Amino acid sequence: MPFLAPVITAVAGWVGTTLAAGGIGAMLLRLGGSLLFSYASQALMPKPKTPARTVTVRAPVMPRDLVYGRARKGGVIVFLHASGAKSQYLHLVVVLAAHRVKAIGAIWFEGEMAVDAAGVAVRLAAGGSEPRYGCNGAVSLSQDPKTVIEAMLSAMAGRVAHAGGAWRLMAGAYRLPGVTLTADDVRAGGMVLATRISRAESFNAVRGQFVSPENDWQADYFPAVTSEVYRTEDGGEEAWRDLSLPFTISSSAAQRLAKIELERARRQMSLRIAGKLSAWAAAVGETVLIDYPRWGFAAKPFEVQSVSLDLTASGDGPALLPELMLRETSPLVYDWDASEEAIYGSHCRTATASRQRLRVGRMRMGSR
């Protein structure tokens, strides 16, 4: 890309000037990568909205829509004509998406199914399964790309990692650690531990909405996820996090996502490491183990939230050394058993979210 050349030249010139002036201690050049667009960070930004996607409209100008997975949606009428002796035939051209689609399953008029073009139902065996994550919905190209990406990532507890000039899409999962960091990988005084997040950021229950096929493809509340253990830890006060899942069409998947949101948040330790060059082996989005007996850490897993490369002064002159931001994690964050699922039914459309709850068992008490 042509515009990179003057930027790189300018940065190189600035670094050279600073080094020549002897101001190395005042200069901090940050390189590396970080985790972006975590759906758990939605409290700090506008929530993804669930659009009224089932309405068909007639308008001269409309933004284009993209469809992912399986969704029920309306479209834009671009042609309308009546024919026949008594105008008994109505011809419509409705644009559903700005791209090819694999199939148009069912066509509905005024809430009634007219044609089932697909005609094939995929049944689950007794005790069968569904995909762990699924991205199902539609977006408008008039929406801000960041908002669209946030909404889509919510369907898989996902994050986007940027490192080395490349983007990686990472679904929510526990990644087996491949790196162990010890005191030998840390500069003198280079570890700062925060054991708790603020009370304003903490919560012990999750509720929210998903797109329910059983509710005419409208937004509906999934059974809330709560924990008596975590509420006790918070002094008996219930604190809610509201979760919007506009690309999730399964109540079971919504409950799994809500539980991941809760379990991630309850692991509150964060660790900043000013590392030696050996710490550069830790990659953004991966899991590392921390061995530090002074704090009682014996192969304790942390997720790498960000990695930066700092240009700092040392006894031997300028050095590029890594700085890591880590967040406590555990395999139990993503653990799930079918017995944990609360049944979603038609009554859920009239009940409040707090009346139907999925309780996280006491076995989570020692998971941190």
How would you describe this structure to a colleague?
This protein has 368 residues and is mainly beta. It has a domain at 161-364. Helices cover 13% and strands 34% of the residues. The strands form 5 sheets. Strands 1, 8, 9, 10, 11, 16, 17, 18 and 19 form a 9-stranded mixed beta sheet that branches. Strands 12, 13, 14, 15 and 20 form a 5-stranded mixed beta sheet that branches. Strands 2-7 form a two-stranded antiparallel sheet. The protein is elongated.
Summarize the structure.
The protein has 368 residues and is mainly beta.
Compile the SSE list and pairings.
Elements: H1 4-20, E1 31-36, E2 65-68, E3 76-83, E4 89-95, E5 106-109, E6 112-116, E7 137-140, H2 145-153, E8 159-163, E9 166-170, E10 179-181, E11 186-194, E12 205-212, E13 218-221, E14 224-226, H3 228-233, E15 240-245, H4 251-266, E16 270-275, E17 287-292, E18 297-314, E19 317-328, E20 357-359
Parallel strand pairs: 10-17, 12-15, 14-20
Antiparallel strand pairs: 1-8, 1-18, 2-7, 3-4, 5-6, 8-9, 11-16, 12-13, 12-14, 16-19, 17-18, 18-19
Q: So how many helices?
A: 4
Order of helices and strands: HEEEEEEEHEEEEEEEHEHEEEEE
Number of strands: 20
Distance between the termini: 46 Å
Rg of Cα set: 26 Å
Question: Mean of the pLDDT scores?
Answer: 76
The helix-and-strand class reads mainly beta
What are the segments in which pLDDT stays under 50 over at least 5 consecutive residues? Answer: 1-30, 39-45, 110-126, 346-355, 361-368
Give a short account of the largest sheet: 9 strands, mixed
How would you sum up the global shape?
elongated
Q: What fraction of the residues are assigned to beta strands by DSSP?
A: 25-35%
What proportion of the residues is helical, as a percent range?
10-25%
